[in-house]
## 1
Amino acid sequence: MKKKILLCLIMAIALVVLFSSCGNSTEPIDGIWVGDGPDETILVIDGDIGYWLHSFSFDDSGYISKAKCIVDTQKKTIDFYDPAYCMNETIYCKNYRLSEDELVIESADDSNFMNGNYSHPSSGEELRDSSEMSLDDEWVAENAILSISGNSGNLDYYDDYYGHMSFSCSVDNTNKTITINGFSSTGDNAIYEYYLINGKLLLFCIEPRSSMEHSFLLEIGSEYDAAGKERPKAEEKSQEEKDKEERERKEEKEKEENKQNAQNEIKEAVKDKKITDTGEKQIWEVYVKDGEFRMVADYSGSGNFIVKLSDPNQNLEEVLCNEIGDYHLDKTVYVPSGLHYLQIESNNGYWEGQWYGTFGY
């Protein structure tokens, strides 16, 4: 009798454990899931971390909003973070369940945000997991045309303020990224991760994050864009406009050359000039740049070595030295910037040296 009771207890415990484990299944939901709503919400899940991408219905430009989400496979919940103003705050916590091949997201509250059935891309292939698929084609959004061939391409971008702009780009099939050169508000390169989902090319910016670096949802192009409108085209310039641009270019070049010539003339005019040289006495016109004049020189001999600095009217300002016999000079004086006269006298000997703080000679 005791054995039967013990056996019943063991079976009961086993059933409790079995049903408990079934109720707390931690089956992962990794992969790409596409919602069945009109906004084409996309979930990209990898373990307990992922992100969600939402094509806002009021924005037909192809831009995508991206934000983080956290998956708890024990509680069967997904925390969705705010994509805009509070990127580190949870805005909704939703329940989920797997129903055959679909991920069903629902909530106990009255909010319908993110609710719905999500399935894997109908193509059955995810580009980030496939090295055999090619991006070679022309992809179009409302204001963007992305042409790709091999590892390079070009983005034609249309803006109401700047008009038509063109950017080169490169494709990294190993890391599944596209780098658009100079496509940022600061002129730096913008780097996008890419996905191919249900025949659409999904790009979202990972570096840098600023007002210009939106993400894109593009479709295979034709003469019409993804919104069904005729594709914008760069207007062909008339011959008159081309001639005007050429004239303006030549005028700008001439102005730059004249400016450079004027600067060269100024530099030439303010160079140090020797105006007197009798052998024992030299007088130089020097232009002091920043109010500081320094002279370093060595005199060898038995005579007198004199160095003076005078103002533009040749009135004495500074005596740098007045010595007899061998002498080493290293002195700095402070005078107004502009023209000065440097007088160097030496007899019964010779000197050598140089000065600093002028435009040279």
## 2
Amino acid sequence: MPRITLIICLLLLLSACKRSETQYPTSLINNYVFFGAFEYMPHSKIIREQTITGSEHKILNTNPDGLLTLITSKESAKLLQLGGDDNIDELKMIINYQAAKTIITDGENNKLLPEFNMQFDSNNNISKLESLNLLMTWLASYDNKNRLIKVSHTTDSNFITETITVDYDKQQIQKITTKVDYNISDQQKLYSIQEKQFYYDEKHRLNKIIINNHREIDQSSEQTIECSFYDYNENGDWTKSYCLIPNQKYTYFTLREITY
């Protein structure tokens, strides 16, 4: 009887050890969520680089601890092109934790904006991202389990305020809600709300996101997008995804190339 008890205890111990190998520090999850990249979070093994192609073009690099150090996006550059910067075809966010700086450059590493200063809490989570020159600030809040639960973004004179809230189901992120308020004048205030609902399979791998968008610009509008993730590799990371708008001719397809 004692031998059986010992074997059971050893099996439980080994099982616990195996689980701990695939569970990341909460600070790593917080890092991906803070920079708006949760769907690219690794499942069981730290990802050094991932390249997203198809309907979206993005590159994400990390340091040996798995924290994001570079996010490159062509889609973000297109937003600047709409503003008149036609020569910018790629936007880079370079995150330097040792210098506590975040830098925004173009594809040729030409600095586009003043540097953003970063502050950290006692758990090495980003607590503040700020540019005094641009009068832009991001403030992060964490719960008693060290989980990111809120990010508040303000601009000069509070013309635009953005609030991101994160809801959890046990240890998994269940929903991320982003609300943006546009304070055009005392009489005119507009807003937009995006809710991302996350779903997982029996192996706790991300397999679906349902995105609900509500925008009040000239008139209220609603939009729902369903995104599916599949073709998992040996580490449980998805390598393909597609998004659809029900009853509409809309498709969004991406491929994910991963280096560990």
